[in-house]
Amino acid sequence: MSGTEKTKAHAEQAKGKAKETLGRAVGNERMTAEGHADQAKGTARQAKEDIKDTFRH
Question: What is the pTM (predicted TM-score) of this model?
Fold first, then answer.
């Protein structure tokens, strides 16, 4: 996985986790859902890069 994409994936997952946690703490369902969606995007980005790495080697 390229370093830049790996960093983006981890940052997106961390941002999503923080947003989800904050949303739950304040009782904001929309923020919780957005956080969950951000985590999913980060996971998808990471999976895409893992597949690219598999075919590269």
Answer: 0.81
